[in-house]
Amino acid sequence: MEFEQQQQEQQEALLLQKVCALYNQISSLSSLKPCKNVDTLFTQLVLTCSQQPPAAPIGFDVASLSQPLQAMRAHLIQLCAKAEALLELHFSSLLASSFHHPISNLSIFPYYSNYLKLSLLEFDILRSHSRRLPNKVAFVGSGPLPLSSIVLASIHLKGTIFHNFDIDPTANTMASQLVCSDPDLSQRMIFHTKDVMEVTKGLKDYEVVFLAALVGLEEEEKGRVLKHLGKHMAAGSYLMLRSAHGARAFLYPVVDICTVEASGFEILSVFHPTDEVINSVVIARKKVVFDQSSVEDEDEDEEEEEKPGILVDTSSIVLAEKCSGFNGFTPIIEEQLS
């Protein structure tokens, strides 16, 4: 047992050494726009954080890091977010300008296979809790290359209307250009240039809300978004969150489960992939009986009549199956909560 602990500590020390070295190189770059050097460094970072021996990324707790390392991690996540945004801008522009039908050529995006696997995972998790497919969903933080929405809409949720929210008008314009040539998706994908914190009554229309991992980089900001969703989403509707676990938390923010619950949601399950899929997936359900006083009232002056909650087929709600029940994935760590 002592030997195993020493081995894990050595793996974690080596992991930190590699991440810090890559951080020093990435933070010294003059630009994070896609190029050979930038792509190589971020590829190395992703591989370092996702392909360590199992004990290292799974047992690694970023909350235990020293204050300087915490500050480094926070800055690294910001750099990753900026690089990801620039990468999406580049490929969205490339797809729209180079192909008559961009949707048929999404595989040129270097991480497209990751989105295929992540979207399949999210769909399977959603179906394991409710066999009724949603008619209308929202994706918050869709960006200029809304791969998650496109994959879910074109492969898994073929009859669902997708409302995509992004605060950046340029991102929405570029995203619209990608789907406008597709006769199906152009009718089922709607783009809203709006801060989700300004959306109130409209949130009750969605049976499922997907929250992108990079919406709310800081814990307090993420908490405000969650409280807002908890206040305005329909009772019984589902919230799909993307988080990170272990060493992957150097790449993306970690969702605080306690904050989700305090915002008026019931955690249904948490999934931590151990393959090339980076994001953990959290599914939660808006409580049917919800004490509004437990959530900070962001807009006390606004009084709106409570609409009936989304009708949930409770007879079809089941606990998520074990990881072996999801096709196409290597084993994943799973936390089941009732």
TrEMBL record:
UniProt-recorded Gene Ontology molecular function terms = nicotianamine synthase activity
Question: What EC number(s) has UniProt assigned to this enzyme?
Answer: 2.5.1.43
Instruction: Give the record's keywords alphabetically.
Output: S-adenosyl-L-methionine, Transferase
Coiled-coil stretches noted in the UniProt entry, renumbered to this chain: none
Reaction catalysis annotation: 3 S-adenosyl-L-methionine = nicotianamine + 3 S-methyl-5'-thioadenosine + 3 H(+)
Q: What domain of life?
A: Eukaryota
Instruction: Please name the GO terms of the biological process aspect recorded for this protein, alphabetically.
Output: nicotianamine biosynthetic process
Q: Which EC class is the enzyme in? A: transferase
Query: What this chain does, per the record?
Result: Synthesizes nicotianamine, a polyamine which serves as a sensor for the physiological iron status within the plant, and/or might be involved in the transport of iron.
The family annotation for this protein states:
Belongs to the nicotianamine synthase (NAS)-like family.
Recorded protein name is: Nicotianamine synthase
Q: Which organism is it from?
A: Cucumis melo var. makuwa (Oriental melon)
